[in-house]
Amino acid sequence: MLNRRNFMKKAALASGTAMAVKPIKALGSRYQTSSDYFGVHEFIENHPEAVFIMKTNVDVKTNHEAVTSAGMAFGQSVFVPKDDGVPITSMLTIKPNITNTSRSSNPANNDEYRMGIITDPWFVEGVIESVKSLGLSGSQVHSIETWNLGNWGPAGYTDMTTRTGSNMNDTEETVVTSLPEEKVQWIDVPEGVFFRRIPYIWPINAENTWLLNISKFKAHGMGITLCCKNLQGTICHDYQLHCNRFDSTIPMDSAHRSPTAYQDIQANYDRHVSDGIPRWDRPGGNGGIWMETWASRCLDNNSVTPCGLHIIEGVYGRDGDGFLNGPNSGEYSTHEAWDYMTNIIIFGKDQYRVDIIGHWLAEQEPGNFGLFHMAIDRGLSNALNPMNIQVYEWFPDSSPVLTNLTEFERTPLRTYYLQRDYDGQTEEQYHLCDEYYDYPAESVEEPAAGNPTAFVLHQNRPNPFNPNTAIEYSLPSSGHARLEVYNMSGQLVDVLVNGYTAKGSHMAVFNTRNHASGTYFYRFRFGGFSETKKMVLLK
Q: What SS3 state is found at 115?
């Protein structure tokens, strides 16, 4: 039986002086009053080393209402009002993947007729509507894409922007030499291997903007091309032609290219072949040197393009070449790309970690892809082994749960990346790069935040709160944990955690719709450790 007097005395000592009653909206519920700022959920913000996976439940890809609902549920749980962060007056820029919308006349894959796969516009619509509920207007939202602008209509994006009151590029012209000066945002790349200066389609990389990178779960010649490659389409023509081979040129001002770009790429390539980057030894212009060239430009771009969040929309995914051709024999072709209802949204603050998990979920072994090795080589990332990345399953209505990556279903998305058809090898054109890769234990060190060495119980956020508040805690080892909530009378009113809990950072949510205003205490017990803190509910 809890001794109320002793408990209240300890609680008062643990909480220190009484907190001010100004609402804090860092994990703000949408039931709270409006805020002048918004941003990403505090738990995501505090764990840039983590990757989050939200499962969706869409039956077929043409169920647009279900896809919109998935985007709305995702956005409402991830984007929140804050006391500081992104000003509500900012422009929200969204980079979807609309690289190709060419269609054939034959019906297939639960659609009227097939088209190149893109970030689903109905998912984007749900995200936009969720952010509008924070106080942004549709006119503040700009979806930007360089490629195939005349196909926005067939892709569904024109109607989406009409429904949401948002904007796509306000001109179908994206060639930098044809755009007015105010429609181009120039950014210097002082550490670039290929670029010294990159022109972006305004308002990408402009002041008072916040970028969401919403890529698509799909295979491509460059592998599984997710968040890192998706940012390629933020750049004006013809500077965005990253996929041009080493032995071809990009039509651009030579002053904006490193004077030693091709020499450096060749030297880096030779070194990486010697280092043993998998498949990098594929000969010819479409071999490893091609990937070295593309990835060098890609990493230049990523190094100067900050994003609020990186997202892989995987309500459905596609194998093959990312467009219409692939490894499958179907009714209309013996070389079809097929779609799969993968029903996952993968996201996080770090695009390299997000993409590593995306590759693994596509049944690839991330260590077999040169982009990740090159990112480490350039100091842009320190991640490679997917099993060293903390992964949380994200539940829109409750707490994220630290989950073993192997518990998520994988979908084989075959790609034509660096086919092994040389030196007597006979790999199929479309294949999985799933061969064993030996990840050296010392090659990558995960940040300390992902591997806590001591027990930490954080102050709940927001506090004061209504109707929900989040309590984050970190465990140095796995074991039985219990998180209890008491009222001022010392009565137990809720148990938020009670059971075996894995080592790492976790979050619990206290839902107070059935509780009265007042002061509450939460007590955490783990092993022989116990700590209590105070929180205030204001209705």
A: strand
